[in-house]
């Protein structure tokens, strides 16, 4: 089975970004959504990205951000990859000279393959759990059996993952990557070193 990549999202501190990198994460996520308890401002995000070692991807998470707002952030923070968690169409995600992930919140009975097909220009599709009024970071998982065996694009699996269930999730879904935030925290936006290391060890051992 191919190596499954990993992303630690909701990073708010340099020390947590370095912890994730040291423990083997392929990417870290920075939330540019003011209503999130894991939100970062431009100054802090720039400092975190500057501290990252080579070959760790910096991902910026946005929710229905205007093109002007997003361009201002990109002028200040050298993000590698964009992640859209709102109601964005494919055209809204394009034109930033960076690859993007589109996050889809999966409802019971969802036709996941059909929704993935709406974003042919995406580098991958992130599948999260649908919770009304919450764009992500719910800490709840969805029915993994809804993920098609041949989705047509790389799948990043999110939603309620932790060290205890990520092996089962990988075995069932066979995603390109997994994404965790709340499952490795001591408090919202503050990562727990033991949980981060345990999660990434579980991914490597899956």
TrEMBL record:
InterPro entries: Aldolase_TIM (IPR013785), PRAI_dom (IPR001240), RibuloseP-bd_barrel (IPR011060), TrpF_fam (IPR044643)
Stretches assigned to the N-(5'phosphoribosyl) anthranilate isomerase (PRAI) domain: 7-200
EC number: 5.3.1.24
Keywords: Amino-acid biosynthesis, Aromatic amino acid biosynthesis, Isomerase, Tryptophan biosynthesis
Gene Ontology molecular function terms on file: phosphoribosylanthranilate isomerase activity
Gene3D superfamilies in UniProt: Aldolase class I (3.20.20.70)
Broadest EC class assigned to this enzyme: isomerase
Pathway participation: Amino-acid biosynthesis; L-tryptophan biosynthesis; L-tryptophan from chorismate: step 3/5
GO process terms (BP): L-tryptophan biosynthetic process
Catalytic activity: N-(5-phospho-beta-D-ribosyl)anthranilate = 1-(2-carboxyphenylamino)-1-deoxy-D-ribulose 5-phosphate
PANTHER family tied to this protein: N-(5'-PHOSPHORIBOSYL)ANTHRANILATE ISOMERASE
Full protein name: N-(5'-phosphoribosyl)anthranilate isomerase
Organism: Geopseudomonas guangdongensis
């Amino acid at each position: 089975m191919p190596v499954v990549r990993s992303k630690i999202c909701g990073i708010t501190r340099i020390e947590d970004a370095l912890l994730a990198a040291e423990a083997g994460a392929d990417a870290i996520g920075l939330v540019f959504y003011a209503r999130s308890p894991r939100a970062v401002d431009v100054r802090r995000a720039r400092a975190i990205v500057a501290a990252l070692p080579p070959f760790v991807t910096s991902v910026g998470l946005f929710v229905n951000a205007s093109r002007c707002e997003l361009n201002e952030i990109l002028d200040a923070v050298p993000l590698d990859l964009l992640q859209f968690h709102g109601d964005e169409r494919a055209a809204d995600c394009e034109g930033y000279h960076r690859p993007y992930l589109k996050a889809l919140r999966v409802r019971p009975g969802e036709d996941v393959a059909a929704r993935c097909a709406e974003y042919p220009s995406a580098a991958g599709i992130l599948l999260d759990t649908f919770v009304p009024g919450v764009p992500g970071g719910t800490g709840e998982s969805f029915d993994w059996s809804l993920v098609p065996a041949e989705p047509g694009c790389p799948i990043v699996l999110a939603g309620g993952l932790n060290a205890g269930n990520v092996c089962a999730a990988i075995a069932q879904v066979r995603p390109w990557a997994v994404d965790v935030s709340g499952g490795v925290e001591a408090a919202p936006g503050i990562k727990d070193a033991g949980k981060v290391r345990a999660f990434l060890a579980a991914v490597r051992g899956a």
